[in-house]
Amino acid sequence: MLRPKLPDIPALPTTTLTPQHTQAPASSAGRPIAPYVGVGVGAVAAVVVVGIVLTALLAALAVSAVSVAIAAVVLRSLLSSANKR
User: Fold this and answer.
1) Is the pTM above the cut of 0.70?
2) Residue 71 Cα distances to 22, 64, 67, 76, angstroms
3) How far is Cα 41 from Cα 34, in angstroms, rounded to an integer?
4) Computed over its alpha carbons, how large is the radius of gyration of the chain?
5) Which stretch of 49-53, 60-64, 77-81 has the lowest confidence by average pLDDT?
6) Residue 8 near residue 2 (C-beta atoms within 8 A)
7) Cα dihedral angle (39, 43, 44, 47), rounded to 10 degrees?
8) Model confidence at 59, in pLDDT bands (50, 70, 90)?
9) What is the rounded CA–CA span in Å between residue 24 and residue 29?
10) What residue intervals traverse the membrane (predicted)?
11) In this structure, are residues 49 and 43 in contact, taking their beta carbons and an 8 Å threshold?
C-alpha cells in the first residue's frame, strides 16, 4: 500500500577515455621547488601552533577573570553582612 517505488538504475555510458599527456611546467630559473614547499609546510605548522597557544591563553584568561569575579562577589557579600551586624 505505502511502499516506495525505487527509480530504475540508468545504464552507464560505454565511451572510451583516451589519456592525455601533459608536460610538467618547466622551472623558470632551474631552481628546485622543494625548499619552498618545506617553508610553506613549516609556516602552516607555525601558524597552527601559534593559534593553539593563543586560544589556550585566552581560555586561561577567561577562567581567571571568572574566578576573580566570583571571589569579588563573595568578599563583597561577606563585608556587607559584617557591616550590618
Assistant:
1) no
2) 69, 11, 6, 8
3) 11
4) 33
5) 77-81
6) no
7) 170
8) very high
9) 15
10) 33-54, 60-79
11) no
